[in-house]
Amino acid sequence: MFARGSWRGVVLTLALGCMGCVQKSDSSQADAQLPAWMTEDSQAAPEIKLASETPSAYLGLNLKPGDQFPLRKVVQQELTQNTVNGAPQQNYSRLELLMAIHVREKLDDRIKLSVRYDRVKYQHHVADEHVEFDSTQPAQTVSPAMAAYRDMVNDGFSFWIGQDNQIVEVEGLGDFISRCLRSVPPAERQNVVLGIEAGSGDTGIANFVDNTIGLLPYGRKTSPGDAWERQQQIARPMPMHVSNVYTLKELTEKYAVIDVRGTITPSTTLNNLQGGEGVRVTVNGGSTLGSCTIFRDTGLPKESRIDRVVEMTVVMANSIQFRQTKRVTTTVESYPMTSSGNPPIAGGANSPVIQQVSGTR
């Protein structure tokens, strides 16, 4: 249906066209009386692309049981805060997960996928502490948190994706977490779980879905310039509400490029510390910015990079308060399987990683 401005444009175009028809004979006579060097060559009007010719497509999952593909997810977090003496302090962590996604079942209204973790790499710089871990090079002794990462390898869980491209059900997650914690002392398990959730990004283990499959529009064709909105409620480690606007920026035969921009609504939570003390964290606000490139034939992410910045105020139990800025950069890449059942060899520094995924199946 045309907007009011569009109708005005049509009416104006018709009016100008009628004026041209009425003045045609006069214009021809005038041109005949002018020298040749003063007359303009007649040029064809530029072709106007009709609305029906504008590229559009349904962007959704197109998978079948038996499909499998490796997926790489990297979460980098930077936390900047002012210390008591006013000097800024920066903490940094990086988590890299290599996982294999397998399509288990497909129903009319949902698809069942399973995820198996094949490799975990983690490092952090917090104050004077520096930690590095690689599941392919296990150390003889590791901390409880690193033991949980180690025991994630060759294990996983399943989940169902609904028609709206959102997770509607998770299967086996509790058992998976229990197996990951089997080497962690019972008294430390809760802190380890919270640490893994925090290291995995604001939406935890489902983050690789939210930043890729979960942003696809549902039930309609989209064209470049079309936008849609998604609301996201994050409960842990800090409750916040994220409102993202997705815009289809480019549509080619192979790819769809989606722009991501959003805002974060403030919220407050109370985290209990050991000894009965507490620290209050107030989320003052924040923003989301990024881009995701989707394979049109499968709906899977070719690559996705989302930056989320959260501004916070921290109040300690002794009433000391300071500001924090948290930046979370999540990168997700998938490498669709070839017809031979093996993933393509990716060039560059990631090639050994992709080969590692293939070798663990």
Shape: globular
Q: How many individual helices?
A: 7
**Total separate domains:** 1
The averaged pLDDT comes out at 76
CATH class: Mainly Beta
Q: Write down the CATH topology.
A: Lipovitellin-phosvitin complex, beta-sheet shell regions
| Structural class by sheet pairing and helices | alpha+beta
* Biggest sheet layout: 13 strands, antiparallel
Which range does the strand content fall in? 35-45%
Q: CATH architecture, please? A: Roll
Number of E-state strands: 15
Helicity, in percent? 10-25%
| Sequence stretches where pLDDT stays below 50 over 5 or more residues | 1-32, 34-51, 338-361
Distance between the termini: 52 Å
Computed Rg: 28 Å
H/E element sequence:
HHEEEEEHEEHHHEEEEEEEEH
InterPro entries: DUF6263
Summarize the structure.
By secondary structure, the chain is α+β, with helices and mostly antiparallel strands. The chain contains seven helices and 15 strands. Helices cover 19% and strands 44% of the residues.
Write up what this structure looks like.
- The protein has 361 residues and is α+β, with helices and mostly antiparallel strands.
- The chain has one domain (66-337): Lipovitellin-phosvitin complex, beta-sheet shell regions.
- The protein is 19% helix and 44% strand.
- It contains 7 helices and 15 strands.
- The strands form 2 sheets. Strands 2, 3, 4, 5, 6, 7, 9, 10, 11, 12, 13, 14 and 15 form a 13-stranded antiparallel sheet that branches.
- A hairpin with a 4-residue loop joins strand 6 and strand 7 (167-171).
